[in-house]
């Protein structure tokens, strides 16, 4: 089972053990991700179980991890979406283009990613925020 599959199975639950706590919440939050919504984009709510938006938080005495994601669609081109998010992400540092379909900003322990995919007459895109530290996530 993939990590995404695990997240979906556990969506909406919290597990606490002596080693720490893991929580998965359905629905990615743009405030959590730290990026603005693309103008006119609509949330993508695919019927497939592995395409739901979710947030994951893990807290242990040794480290913290937080991942939030949200999927959208727009009638605009992938180039327009990438141009918007290149400017939006520049608030966090130097934006790196990985191939022509993905933007990244930040170090590995505080990373934001925008991945785009042309779809029909428009574009599907996913926003991701991943944070890791030697303390509990905020």
Question: What report would you give on this structure?
Answer:
The protein is of the alpha+beta class and 138 residues long. The chain has one domain: TATA-Binding Protein. The chain is built from three helices and nine strands; from the N terminus they run H-E-E-H-E-E-E-H-E-E-E-E. Strands 1, 2, 3, 4, 5, 6, 7, 8 and 9 form a nine-stranded antiparallel β-sheet that branches. A hairpin with a 2-residue loop joins strand 8 (110-119) and strand 9. The longest helix is centred in the middle third of the chain and has 12 residues, at 78-89. The protein is globular. The relative contact order is 0.20.
Reported CATH architecture: 2-Layer Sandwich
Query: Which whole number gives the mean pLDDT?
Result: 80
Count, helices: 3
Helix content: 10-25%
Taking the alpha carbons of the first and last residues, their distance comes to 28 Å
Biggest sheet layout: 9 strands, antiparallel
Secondary structure: elements and pairs:
Elements: H1 3-9, E1 13-17, E2 20-26, H2 30-33, E3 42-43, E4 54-59, E5 64-74, H3 78-89, E6 95-98, E7 102-105, E8 110-119, E9 122-133
Antiparallel strand pairs: 1-2, 2-4, 3-5, 4-5, 5-9, 6-7, 7-8, 8-9
Brief summary of the model shown:
By secondary structure, this protein is α+β, with helices and mostly antiparallel strands. The chain has a single domain, classed as 2-Layer Sandwich (TATA-Binding Protein). 17% of the residues lie in helices and 44% in strands.
